[in-house]
Input
Amino acid sequence: MFVLSYPPAYFDVSKNQLNRTISSTVGNLEVLSHFNAGENQLTGSVPETMYNLTRLKTLDVGDNKLTGTISENMRNLQFLEIVNMKMNHFSGPVPGAFGLMRDL
Output
């Protein structure tokens, strides 16, 4: 299923067997509030531009093959209510920024 509203507030490409990286251009979708790319086979890291999406309420990249660290820039996502990053291959500590998110 591919869901994209205009302006793109919801982006859902979950359960599509995608096996690419998350494009850094996702950071250009300034009004995005829900990003769901869970249950695919995405590789690479979460692009730093993702942390420019300051209106984001849902971030679901769970059940992929993502690597790297989770950036401290996560603190920019102050409106996050739901985060799913399980079942990936992240390394390093959990950012302290998670403790600063009031709605999480």
